[in-house]
Design brief:
Number of helices of chain A: 7
CATH superfamily of chain A: P-loop containing nucleotide triphosphate hydrolases
Number of strands of chain B: 0
Shape of chain B: flat
Order of helices and strands of chain A: EEEHEEEHHHEHEHEEHEE
CATH topology of chain A: Rossmann fold
CATH topology of chain B: MetI-like fold
Largest interface: A-B, 21 and 19 residues
Number of strands of chain A: 12
Largest sheet of chain B: none
Number of domains of chain A: 1
Radius of gyration of chain B: 24 Å
Strand content of chain A: 25-35%
CATH architecture of chain B: Orthogonal Bundle
CATH superfamily of chain B: MetI-like
Oligomer: heterodimer
Shape of chain A: globular
Distance between the termini of chain B: 22 Å
Amino acid sequence: MTNKAFISVENVSRVFTGENTVTAIQDVSFTMNKGEFLCIVGQSGCGKSTLLRIMAGIDPSHEGVVSINGEVVKKPDKTRGVVFQEARLLDWMNVCSNVGFPLQGMEKDAKKKLVEEYVTLVGLTDFKKSYPRELSGGMAQRVSIARALVNKPEVLFMDEPFGALDYMTKINMQNELLRIREKSRMTVIFVTHDIDEAVYLSDRILVMSKNPGRIKEIIDNPMPRPRDRNSEAFLNVRKQVYDCFFINNVMD
Amino acid sequence: MGKSISYKKIFQNKRQKALHGVEYVGLVIVLIAIWQTASSLGWLNPLTLPSPAKIVETFIALIKKGTLLTNLWISSRRVLTGYAISAVSAVVLGVIMGLSPHFKRMTDLIVQVMKPIPPISWIPLVILWFGIGESGKVFLIFIGGFFTILVNVVDGIRRIDVKLVELSNAMVIPRMKYVFQVVIPYAAPNIFTGLRVGLGQSWMCVVAAELVASSTGLGYMIMYARQFGQTDVVIVGMLTIGIIGKVMDSILLFVEKRVIRWK
């Protein structure tokens, strides 16, 4: 197999057994380079979140092998950060404590400094001592991004992180994410069902089909950054993705 | 937005607060007035139901004599001892039961069978085991609080949001940190409910224990007074228990609000 790939996903399948046995994803294989930004796009129920969770090590009951940096992924690890659709903040901790929550065995001052660095990075300096109930949806999601980054992960997994935000907030958050990623050059795996979002953010777009979840197409998206959402190049990539799902505006 | 509160609004708020205060005590005052009127008009037999004025008089007399406060202190000490033991052991055991499915399965049947047994029905055994000394009463109060608190704690712990479990797993949070910083805070509202209901149970048990097997305490005071037909003393004892119960519950509620500030 490709030894040089930073991430390799080989023949991964996931079957959920229960009253109805469901094959969420079947025989998925692809590779990723270090520093790449991959968006996984598909309809709901196509197994895109399942794939992300397997890659992040949260779902160990799958077939096939995922390896990152030459090591097989079997369980979660601090080198991998995860951001979920909901911010999942701990209501009883303020912004700083939430961001510092994943840090272990650090000296107090160093911890404080690191936490403040990340709180500043996501633009919440003025809300350091605020509790989650005092934050808007976008601010809460910023906290959860800072929390995922504080351990300086090599790979950041994001499962529809902006799905619950309004349009304007979403666009702001997309720009913030690109700015943060510019600094750290992390590898990012980003699940979304928003085609525009995928085209704006990604280096490559992995399109999934449903029942069972498989790779339909992998679309290269080498547009230079910063990207213009209304440029012809943008619309061209957008059309390529769109055509994977719709033929003459009818769902494929 | 927050700065522009008008004087009219402040005035309305004050008026509303005053109105709520009137509602809070109004009915009580009306009922006492009716009771007093009925007594004064001779509609009530003072031997079975003395007038509010007589009860207040007895209340003051009992305080002056020291009887009431001595008995109140004795009963309170028993409750606080038994309750402290039941609260600590039930919270610790409840957290373990809530976290460990094995332990929960092993202990569930015992808890489910023991829980419906009214604490009062333990009295014969308690007298046999402990005699009529202090330890028997403390044990009974312990029984009264323990199962109620335990069941609430277990319930709260098991209700943990799976999304937070997954989060802690994804962040590789160590077990103990997960228990103390995620599970217990999440269950805190349920734990407090258990602690409050358990405290009420403890009060019921102390009176029950003192009614049957004691020569001190508020329960004993009530029982002793009944033998001499002192209905006023009986009612003073009952009201004292009620008021102290309410005060202790308010204290716990205050603590709960301070601890669970994030709600």
